[in-house]
Amino acid sequence: MSESKVVVVTGGGDGIGKALAQHLAGEGWEVCVADIDEAAAATVAADLVAAGHRAVGVGADVSNEDDVARVADCAERDLGAISGWINNAGNSRPAMLLRMAVDEFDSVLAVHARGTFLGLREAARRMVASETNGSIVNVTSSAGLGGTIGQINYASAKGAIIAMTKSGAKELGRYGIRVNAVAPSASTQMTKTIMTNEKFAATYLSRIALGRFAESEEMAPTFSYLLSDAASYMTGQVLSVDGGTYMVS
Ligand SMILES: NC(=O)c1ccc[n+]([C@@H]2O[C@H](COP(=O)([O-])OP(=O)(O)OC[C@H]3O[C@@H](n4cnc5c(N)ncnc54)[C@H](O)[C@@H]3O)[C@@H](O)[C@H]2O)c1
Question: What's the gap in Å between 56 CA and the centre of ligand 1?
């Protein structure tokens, strides 16, 4: 791992992002928690600081170019050179294709696809400028790998994120910057509707080889690995942490 251990976690105010912020702080990372929910970002960061870690919380919309630049500015000003960046923020607006409105498509693409592009570009610019051999981790989904029903907007955005991960890895390798992606699966606000509805939950569970849902904390070690020097020769890859839901036949 490079000397500076400053990581930006977008969508760090709740769910998987919050668990990532807590886990990485415990490993010595200084964490910039960015979230559109400014209060949530501030609370997660304040809890980390109270526990003796260095952290900062920033309210920001990842689909907004200026906000993303401001996140990087805050991280560099308050913590130091950025060596890790996790593009985790996400929303969902499920609807069947026949009924999906253009606005439902656009708003999900804006957060996931534009948001990841902006985060990837900002992280890369900062890492190149500070000559940091950093690691960027994007968050995709089994929906982006294999498609899904009722969320063509989300699956499209997550598919775009996989292509961005591979293209980013190819462009940034010359700077020693690695770009990988994780396809997680965990009980969070985003998946609450599926996991608490008896019928949906049974269908969903039947597709998970390990036969159980995971908590967000179980996602964190894979992100930590991708940020670390243990993954120094790994770039452009997608790791599924989904209990064996998506498998290539
Ligand atoms: N939970 C799962 O099973 C699962 C599966 C596959 C992929 N994912 C992905 O993991 C990531 C985290 O999801 P989660 O399940 O923790 O969801 P979550 O809803 O618990 O957390 C998402 C966080 O992102 C923030 N956010 C939303 N829009 C934002 C924006 N425009 N700018 C900044 N922050 C924004 C929210 O405020 C929230 O804190 C998402 O990218 C999601 O698509 C989750």
Answer: 19
- For the record, the structure tokens of 217 come out as 């904390």
CA-nearest residue, atom 36 of ligand 1: 11
84: Cβ below 6 Å to ligand 1? no
Cβ–ligand 1 distance for 240 under 6 Å, the answer: no
Ligand 1 neighbour 242 (Cβ under 6 A): no
Q: Return the closest-CA partner of residue 34 out of 48, 44, 23.
A: 44
pLDDT tens-digit series, residues 97-118: 999 999 999 999 999 999 999 9
Instruction: Name residues whose C-beta falls within 8 Å of residue 196's C-beta, 6 or more positions apart in sequence.
Output: none
Q: Which residues of the chain have pLDDT under 50?
A: 1-2
Domain assignment present for 207: no
| Rounded-to-5 percentages of helix, strand, coil across the chain | 50, 15, 35
Q: What is the CATH number of the domain that holds 235?
A: 3.40.50.720
Give DSSP secondary structure letters for 227-248: HSGGGTT--S-EEEESSS-S--
Asked if residue 147 belongs to a domain, the reply is yes
**204 located within any domain:** no
The count of domains in the chain is 1
- Known catalytic residue: 154? yes
Would the CB of 186 count as within 6 Å of ligand 1?
yes
